Amino acid sequence: MKRFFIFALVVLFGTSAVSPASAENGALKLPAFKKVVLNNGLTLLLMEQHEVPIISLNFIVRAGSVADPDGKQGAASVTAALLRKGTKSRTADQISNELDFIGGQLDAGATFDYSNGTAEFVRKDIAKGLDLLADILLNPTFPQDEVTKLLKQRVDEIKAAKDDAQSVIGNYFRAYLYGQHPYGRPTGGDETSVAAITRADILSFYQTSYSPRNTILSVVGDFEATAMEQAVRAKFGDWKGPGAEKQVKLPVANSVTGKKLLLVDKPDSTQTFFQIGNLGIARTNPDRVFIQVINTLFGGRFTSMLNTELRIKTGLTYGARSSFSQHRDPGPFVISTYTQNETTEKAIDMALEILKRLHEKGITEEDLKSAKAYLKGQFPPTIETSDQLADLLAQLEVYGLDASDVDGYYSKVDSMTMADARRVIKQYFPIENLAFVLIGKAGDIEPIARKYAPKVDKKTISQPGF
Known about the structure:
Blueprint: H1 4-13, E1 34-37, E2 43-48, E3 54-61, H2 75-82, H3 92-102, E4 105-110, E5 115-122, H4 126-138, H5 144-161, H6 165-178, H7 191-196, H8 199-209, E6 215-221, H9 225-236, E7 259-265, E8 271-279, H10 288-300, H11 305-313, E9 321-326, E10 330-340, H12 344-361, H13 365-378, H14 386-398, H15 404-407, H16 409-415, H17 418-428, E11 434-440, H18 442-449, E12 456-460
Helix pairs in contact: 2-8, 4-9, 10-13, 10-17, 11-12
């Protein structure tokens, strides 16, 4: 039943897409939007899209897991998840029932840099939708029974996730790469830190982080901007909170120098999951589009160098990829795949050989042309629907970017030269300085692991934390 009415409208109208691409010249252009800062400091972004009678909302609070108190990692995530579990005027069941009645959606969570939420409603129900959104943001009560239930559920989920190495290897890699840096913390916490969170911690996080000056609200869809601005002012204009924005000042993260390796023993594993990488780039890095072009060729699509060799040609894995996670400060660059225990060495060697080949042989003009065409074809569908656009507007605002991030995308892709490719490979795809994390049966793969780093650090997957 979830979002049934919205789904029915999409079927009726054919699509919820609202293409920002210009049909005249083949370029992309972000649709016009209005930015308003309310007297209390809340930033409001409004974009009209009238193709389908749906309105999507996205909010960002500038406090994510990097703001979690020491020893209470997961506080931002838990606080966000509890927003709709009870307010001063509604119980959790009442919120769910009211959402179900209008076929609406309302969810919240946390990333490293911020907490955020999404909501979507049919146009005729937007007054009720705004009322519900304002209620959970301004008036949550965090009932003790809901806190207790969610914390227990989260701890159980974290423990259970360790049965699936693929779902947790990213947490181990980040923790090993970043050490004590806030980006090394799992956004959802671990079984020890989540168990230590109390209702008082949640209230404190909310009271110090959730404020109008710390919040961005984007609204995209079938509305008239002046009327929507008035409606938002009516619901959020009297919101009070701490006077200043709260944004954690992050310490400088240090890249890995040389090679280091963590082996996480999972005695029952018949496969080895591994990630290899180092620090990558921030969301605002000026080379981010050029890096995306090279990464598409190296490990970002099905026909990439990594996946072609490790999956298509040799069958060592069902998938191999590389990625750059972009945050306010540099996120990780990661090569990621898995293989059977007996082919662990062959798969790691092959991944490293492909990285070496990228540096020594580079790419061809035909490769560059192919990656450009691929990215220009893949990008528009990611910014077509009202919910995608609402998310994009909020993210551009929180990272201090603007419409040129979209409007200039094609021209930036097209401007890349072979000289740019050589520079980007050398600068952003590390080959000598690498961190390795392997999860597998240590009895089988420890001798292999020692080949890749002068010292092997070890953990067992049953140990609390990452």
